[in-house]
Amino acid sequence: FYIVSLLLIFAIMGSFPLQLFVVSDTGEEWLFRVYPHLERNRFWVTNAFRTALVLFICIMAVTIPNFGLLMAIVGSVGGCTLQWLFPISFVLKVYYWELSVLKRAQYIFYL
Length: 111
Fold this sequence. Notes:
Layout: H1 2-34, H2 42-63, H3 67-95, H4 101-110
C-alpha cells in the first residue's frame, strides 16, 4: 500500500509542472503585456509569479473540503467539452458552407 502511495505522489509531482505550465505561461504573458515596466526584472517577477501560483493552489487544496470531488467535477466538465463540444464546433467553423443543410442541422442539434 505504501509503495502505491509513493508512486502516486511521484506521478503527481511529475505531472503538476506540466499542467501548470500553460497557466503560468499565459499569466506571465498577460502580466508583462499589462505591466511593461516589469520587463527589466523579468527573472524575479516570473519566479515570484510562479511561486505565488503554486502557493495559491496549495492553499486551495488544503482549505477546500472534499477537494477531490471538486476536481472530479472540473475534470468531467472539461473532458466532455474537449471530447464532444470542441470538435463539433471546429467542424462547423471550418466546413460550415461545405456541409449540407441536413448535416449542419445535425451538428447544431448535437451542440
